[in-house]
Automatic annotation (TrEMBL):
Residues 31-60 are annotated as: NMP. Residues 128-164 form the Adenylate kinase active site lid domain. It is an enzyme of class 2 (transferase). GO terms for molecular function: AMP kinase activity; ATP binding; zinc ion binding. This is Adenylate kinase. GO terms for biological process: AMP salvage. It comes from Lactobacillus corticis.
Length: 217
């Protein structure tokens, strides 16, 4: 069983490589954003607790997010393992996750960090756009829809750029994320779990390097 955390700044390519890992290893991709949406839609106890913070425009406390992760990791679809995306973001969350994984008996097998320099990330993020209907992500540099103006996933025709992907916002966003990301890498390096992969390479080469790490286990 492969239980994996993917680290990397926004634009590093975590979403692209996650899709390939899921296809090959049949892991369950757990995104915190999706988790919040599902738990709130299903009106689970933790989902309603999270909603009470979100509705007031407040950040969801770490302990509530951790409860949500634990709820998700206990679901029966996680047979072959999981990829955690968006959690943990801080060392405090990483410590909470250690407790969760011990309770659900699903130890981490790998933590992989996709490292990309700041200028490349700014270019990638500034070129990113999304389908207004289903949220599928595209990129003017690397991933245009197969049919121009039509979403590959849902067939929608309306696209938009996230406010935080606009060039003037991107640099600050990367600096904030780097401050959170660096201590996390140190945390997992000390545990002997961290592998750093060059995210500047083509998506094919990034996946080949990542696959080599996962297939060792």
């Amino acid at each position: 069983m492969i239980n994996l955390i993917l680290l990397g700044l926004p634009g590093a390519g975590k979403g692209t490589v996650s899709e390939r890992i899921v296809d090959k290893y049949h892991l369950t991709h757990i995104s915190t954003g999706d988790m919040f949406r599902e738990a709130m839609a299903n009106k689970t106890k933790v989902g309603l607790e999270a909603k009470s913070y979100i509705d007031k425009g407040n950040l969801v406390p770490d302990e509530v997010t951790a409860k949500l992760v634990e709820e998700r990791l206990n679901q029966p679809d996680i047979k072959e393992g999981f990829i955690l995306d968006g959690f943990p973001r801080t060392t405090k969350q990483a410590e909470l996750l250690d407790g969760i994984l011990e309770r659900v008996n699903k130890p981490l097998s790998n933590v992989i960090s996709l490292d990309v320099n700041e200028q490349t990330l700014i270019e990638r993020l500034s070129a990113r756009f999304m389908c207004k209907n289903c949220g599928a992500t595209y990129n003017k540099l690397t991933k245009m829809p197969k049919v121009e103006g039509t979403c590959d996933r849902c067939g929608g025709h309306e696209f938009y750029q996230r406010e935080d992907d606009k060039p003037e916002v991107v640099k600050n966003r990367l600096e904030v994320n780097e401050k959170m990301n660096a201590p996390l890498k140190d945390f997992y390096e000390k545990k002997g779990l961290l592998t750093v992969i060059d995210g500047e390479q083509t998506p094919e080469k990034v996946f080949k390097d990542l696959d080599a790490v996962l297939s060792r286990d």
